[in-house]
Amino acid sequence: MTKSISLLVYFAVSATAVQQLTLGPWFWYTDNTCASWNKLMGRNYPTFEAETSIPYNVTADGTGVYLDPPAGYTDPNFMKDIRNWNDGTNASAFMTVYADQQLANGTNGLDLVSDEAIIHLAQRLGAMVNETGRALYIRWLPEMNGSWMLYGLQPTYYVSVWKRMYPIMKQYIPTVQLVWAPNYDLQPNDTSYWPGPDYVDVVGTSVYYKGFGTNGPMPASYIAESMSPVYPEYSTAYNKP
Q1: Concatenated DSSP letters for the chain?
Q2: How far apart are CA 8 and CA 47, in angstroms?
Q3: Confidence (pTM)
Q4: pLDDT level of residue 18 (50, 70, 90 thresholds)
Q5: pLDDT tens across 69-108, in order?
Q6: CA–CA gap between residue 211 and residue 232 (Å, rounded)
Q7: Where is the signal peptide, in residue numbers (predicted)?
Q8: CATH topology (fold) of 4-236
Q9: Nearest to 125 by CA among 78, 88, 173
Q10: What's the CA dihedral at 111, 76, 79, 124 to 10 degrees?
Q11: What are the structural domain ranges in the chain?
Q12: Buried b vs exposed e over 32-66: b needs ≥16 C-beta within 10 Å?
């Protein structure tokens, strides 16, 4: 299993156009905890990212799904349960949700995102929020414009699922912020994946710098260039953080 740490960065833009940068790590099956990371870095980070699947998992024989963790099951990725975070601060939780499950008969992705599955996820995350008091951001089925996602390249279906999800999440977690986040290479003027401003709280995007075979500093303009057109076409146009 790959162990890695990614960095989460997002901007909060107020009505007065004052930008606030929020930075946090995303642990992938490492020995790090929120507390150990803060100690290592010498500061308390304001947010941490984790991920979960919808539905939670498939049965061993691949014929059914688990909507929640089975009784007595300990997930190897402890970060999925916000109640495990040991930083002792009010850092927000940035939860990425993937529709990445597949049954033995080939049914997968969006076909498994039922209202029941959404309700179970909302109830589970809502309980975590109530117990911890943390602010919650849900990055729902990101990079949907990528072929590497089971739910990718299905814009009409994707939007219909999003519009089912949004009111359910708001019903069970009224304070949740839903993050719409395509991969950075979304084509200009391609609004086919956009659910509409009434269904999105925060606009995000995935930007990766892998060096392209060269171990060196990232070009200063790389992030700004990569965020276009997503940032101006959606965040700026609809006044969304």
Answers
A1: ---EEEEEEEEEE-TT--EEEEEEEEEES-S--HHHHHHHHTS--SEEEEEEESSSEE-TTSSSEESSPPTT---S-GGGSGGG--S-S--EEEEEEE---B-TTS-BGGGG--HHHHHHHHHHHHHHHHHH---EEEEES--TTSTTSTTTT-HHHHHHHHHHHHHHHHHH-TT-EEEE--BTTPPTT--TT---GGG-SEE--B----GGG--SPPPTTHHHHHTTTHIIIIIITTT--
A2: 8
A3: 0.91
A4: low
A5: 999 999 988 899 999 999 999 999 999 999 999 999 999 9
A6: 26
A7: 1-17
A8: TIM Barrel (3.20.20)
A9: 173
A10: 50
A11: 4-236
A12: bbbeebbeeeeeebebbbbbbbbbbbbeeeeeebb
Burial class (CB in 10 A: 0-12, 13-18, 19+), 96: buried
Residue 212 CB coordination number (10 Å): 6
Q: Which residues partner with 177 through β-bridges?
A: 137
- What tokens were used for 150? 């089971």
> In Å, what is the CA distance from 82 to each residue of 1, 65, 93, 150, 165?
22, 22, 7, 26, 21
The angle at the Cα of 28, spanning 5 to 91, to the nearest 5 degrees, equals 75
Structure tokens at 75: 């997930």
